[in-house]
Amino acid sequence: IQEIVYLLRPKRYEAGQLIVQRGDEVDQIFLLKTGCIVVEVPEKNYEGINENFQQKENIYFDWLNEGSCFCIYTGFNKDMYQLVNFRASSTCIVESIHVQDLKALEKCNIELSDILKQM
């Protein structure tokens, strides 16, 4: 645990700021230390009656509170592109660890390897 904590990198996000956007290639696992995050599903562009009118909507999906972990599944899959947006709804501190760093620790710690395989 101490080795994982040592590898965490904190970053501050202000309310409304995008943390991870749909389509981003994610090679990190994120932990929400403080604040609240909104999870949004972007709607596809659509054309209205006027051909020049295009609108892109974000649909509220869920929210994350302190202690939440996100983007973990994309980090451990071959397809590492994010499917949703994660946006700060308040000032947030988000800590991250690169998947490569975690996999290197996994090789040295059998217990960690067993835990990660269950995810």
Structure description:
- The protein has 119 residues and is an alpha+beta fold.
- Helices cover 24% and strands 38% of the residues.
- It contains four helices and ten strands.
- It has helices at 2-7, 72-75, 99-108, 110-117; strands at residues 9-13, 18-20, 28-34, 37-42, 46-47, 54-55, 58-64, 69-70, 85-88, 92-98.
- Strands 1-10-3-8 form a four-stranded antiparallel beta sheet. A four-stranded antiparallel beta sheet has the order 2-9-4-7, with no helix packed on it. Strands 5-6 form a two-stranded antiparallel sheet.
- The two termini are 17 Å apart.
- The mean pLDDT is 83.
Shape: globular
Oligomer: single chain
SSE pattern: HEEEEEEEEHEEHH
**C-alpha end-to-end distance:** 17 Å
User: What's the average pLDDT?
Assistant: 83
Radius of gyration: 17 Å
Strand fraction equals 35-45%
Widest sheet, order of strands? 1-10-3-8
For the largest beta-sheet, the strand count, sense and barrel status come to: 4 strands, antiparallel
Please provide the count of β strands.
10
- Computed structural class: alpha+beta
Q: How many separate helices?
A: 4
Map the helices and strands.
Layout: H1 2-7, E1 9-13, E2 18-20, E3 28-34, E4 37-42, E5 46-47, E6 54-55, E7 58-64, E8 69-70, H2 72-75, E9 85-88, E10 92-98, H3 99-108, H4 110-117
Antiparallel strand pairs: 1-10, 2-9, 3-8, 3-10, 4-7, 4-9, 5-6
Helix pairs in contact: 3-4
